[in-house]
Fold this protein.
Amino acid sequence: MSEPKPECQDALHELYGYLDGELTDDRRAAIHRHLDGCQPCAEPYDFEAELRQVIRRKCQEQVPASLMAKVRAALATEQTPSTDGA
Ligand SMILES: [Zn+2]
């Protein structure tokens, strides 16, 4: 197991805020720069970003608020994806 770098912990910690557009422009730029040059961080980012796109598409159809709450809770707890393409 390799030690995660402090900047990686920061990037992953703020990943959800980044994806949700809740960060300042400065923080977004810093994380974007980090993801660009850091494969271990870019991988979970790609997964989450894809997931958000799917959710957003579904949202444009019809998703009850209760389901969105469940999805958010699942996203908050499942930091590491264990299945692909599910
Ligand atoms: Zn990193």
